[in-house]
Design brief:
Length: about 375
């Protein structure tokens, strides 16, 4: 490694530089290029995404081995697309960022391997990014970026967390799910109702035409005195209710009349959304902060957005979201998180290409020590 074994020296680095970001933690391959100019908010030059949803649909969920193989097929063509779209070449890439975790090990290794190979070939430093930090900072790419400090509601397929965010790398977890994540609750309930994979968007679409008060479903930990969540019981309650209805109608759950399924979907969504909204409001009250950032795939849910907007408006709280198309996994958030870490000086990229990935990686692990 000799000559290349040095950290990227930020003070001597050009004022303007470009960060290429590669996301491959699950079922979406994302690549993006952002430009950093001094301490200005980094600007997204281009991004490209390939979703594997169609491929996994046949199996009712993500097949890790197939996911890895597909990332391999997509990542370089997507990189070329991004460079083409931004009018840049590989020579213009100053730092290569990749999702280091959490996620599927094989899938992460694809992004990490390609990023490190590109870095080594170009003689440029690399930086492994925490996927959840990518989600968390993705609203900074929106037309209405937040300011620190804020409360963040991070709701993805694998995580549900409320945190206090004082700056890049300054994350204090206020509460989190003790079992299933909100996205999992959407996905598992949707599967039970025969809505396939991924369930969140499908259940949410059906819920739009259903009655959210049709069935009484549990709101776990709603009245607990902490900010933790528990969604595992909800899918069981949905299953019990669905089977009851199937008995009444003398059919299987999937053959229930459309209106009944819509009512069940709406009631399920209402239960999840109510808990997320109430706990977010408590977090805002406890921290006395007046900004809320919502990030992660479930943040695309229209009902959640509408209820948070309404409740927060009453309390003088501003709510910030990522652009709708950047709520779910993408390369832009990875390039952005890397850029913001570099800008804030809490991390350097380096030219050591002996990469590893972290399939399990709590967000607290990347927190910087606060005096
Ligand atoms: O953040 P994300 O893309 O991946 C992870 O990091 O996990 O989140 C994916 C999750 C899935 O559970 C998906 O069903 C859910 O976000 N999701 C939604 C919606 N769009 C995506 N859930 C509810 N309503 C939506 N519109
Ligand atoms: Zn994600």
């Amino acid at each position: 490694m000799r000559a290349l074994d040095h950290p990227l020296n930020l003070p001597t680095m050009a004022k303007d530089y470009c960060v290429l970001g590669i996301e491959s933690s699950c079922d979406e391959t994302g690549v993006a290029l952002v430009r950093v100019s001094g301490q200005d908010l980094p600007v997204l030059l281009a991004h490209a995404l390939y979703s594997q949803i169609e491929m996994h649909q046949a199996y009712g969920g993500v097949v890790p081995e197939l996911a890895s193989r597909d990332h391999i097929r997509r990542v370089l063509p997507l990189t070329q697309e991004v460079l083409h779209e931004s009018g840049k070449t590989l020579k213009d890439v100053d730092v290569v960022a990749f999702t280091r975790g959490p996620g599927l090990a094989g899938a992460l290794l694809v992004g990490a391997g390609v990023a490190c190979a590109l870095g080594a070939a170009l003689g440029k430093p690399v930086l492994g990014v925490h996927h959840l930090e990518g989600h968390l900072l993705s609203p900074f790419l929106s037309a209405d970026p937040p300011e620190f400090p804020f409360v963040a509601l991070l709701v993805s397929g694998g995580h549900t967390q409320l945190m206090r965010v004082d700056g890049v790398g300054r994350y204090q977890i206020l509460g989190e799910t003790i079992d299933d994540a909100a996205g999992e609750a959407f996905d598992k309930s949707a599967k039970l109702l025969g809505l396939g994979y991924p369930g969140g968007p499908a259940l949410s679409k059906l819920a739009d035409v259903g009655n959210p008060e049709a069935y009484k479903l549990p709101r776990p930990l709603l009245h607990s005195d902490n900010l933790d969540f528990s969604f595992a019981g909800l899918k069981t309650a949905v299953m019990v209710q669905a089977k009851k209805l199937a008995n009444v109608h003398g059919c299987g759950v999937e053959a229930l009349p459309g209106t009944v399924l819509a009512d069940l979907a709406a009631s399920t969504q209402a239960a999840i959304v109510e808990v997320l909204v109430k706990k977010s409001l408590i977090a805002l009250k406890q921290t006395r902060l007046t900004r809320l950032v919502v990030a992660g795939g479930v943040g695309a849910n229209r009902n959640l957005r509408a209820q948070l907007n309404a409740q927060c408006a009453k309390r003088g709280v501003r709510v910030h979201y990522p652009e709708l198309h950047l709520c779910t996994d993408n390369g832009a958030m990875i390039a952005m998180a890397a850029a913001m870490r570099l800008q804030s000086g809490i991390q350097t990229a380096n030219a050591v290409y002996a990469f590893d990935v972290k399939p399990r990686w709590p967000l607290d692990a990347i927190q910087i020590a606060v005096e």
